[in-house]
Amino acid sequence: MPALLGLARAIDRFSSWLGVLIGGVTLLMIGVGLFNVFGRFADRYLGTEFSSNSLLELQWYLFSVIFLLGGAYVLSLDEHVRVDVLYGRLPPKRRALINLVGTVLFLLPFCVIVLWVAIPWFGLSYGIQESSSDPGGCCAGRSSCCCPSASCSC
Questions:
Q1: Which of 18, 43, 125, 144 could share a disulfide with 130, CB 3.0–4.6 Å?
Q2: What are phi and psi of 87, to 5 degrees?
Q3: How many Å apart are CA 68 and CA 151, to the nearest integer?
Q4: How buried is 122 (Cβ within 10 angstroms: 0-12 exposed, 13-18 middle, 19+ buried)?
Q5: How many Cα atoms are found within 13 Å in the side-chain-facing hemisphere of 9?
Q6: Distance between CA atoms of residues 125 and 130, nearest Å
Q7: Distance CA 77, CA 5 (A)
Q8: Which DSSP category does 80 fall into?
């Protein structure tokens, strides 16, 4: 039993660290978005070339990282979205039972299926050095590792 408690504490520490990391990635995404907005106006009125497809795609990839990896952090805080028509009125033991059943029957199988599908997909994408179809876009192969990573972090 102490080994399982130690494992649970380690997972909680990892989730907390992930939350801090996701906070930094969120600020970075906001900064890239602001730079894109001001860059487009500078491009239009000053004739400069600050904005690019790679920065726009970077913003989308950062959003994907926030959404995919931030799920584990939100889940650890019990702040995830749920339909709580009855859940809010139930006693804590019943809520814990619903959380356990939902995790075992839905979350864990979903994570296994995502891993089963995403790992070969990531290997293929990375192996062929997949890149964006847009001129000057980002390399998509490296960013596709977010799906397996997110599935492991839940």
A1: 125
A2: -55, -40
A3: 8
A4: buried
A5: 6
A6: 5
A7: 17
A8: S
pLDDT band at 107 (very low <50, low <70, confident <90, very high): confident
Amino acid letter, 84: D
Query: Within the chain, where are the H helices?
Result: 2-46, 53-76, 92-102, 108-127, 140-143, 146-153
Tokens 């029957």 belong to residue: 105
- Is 136 within 8 Å of 54 (Cβ atoms)? yes
pLDDT digits (tens, 9 = 90+) for 10-62: 888 888 898 899 999 999 999 999 998 888 888 777 777 777 777 888 888 88
Distance between CA 90 and CA 68 in Å, rounded?
A: 30
Q: Which residues pair with 131 in a beta bridge?
A: 139
pTM, two decimals, is 0.70
7 close to 15: Cβ distance less than 8 angstroms: no
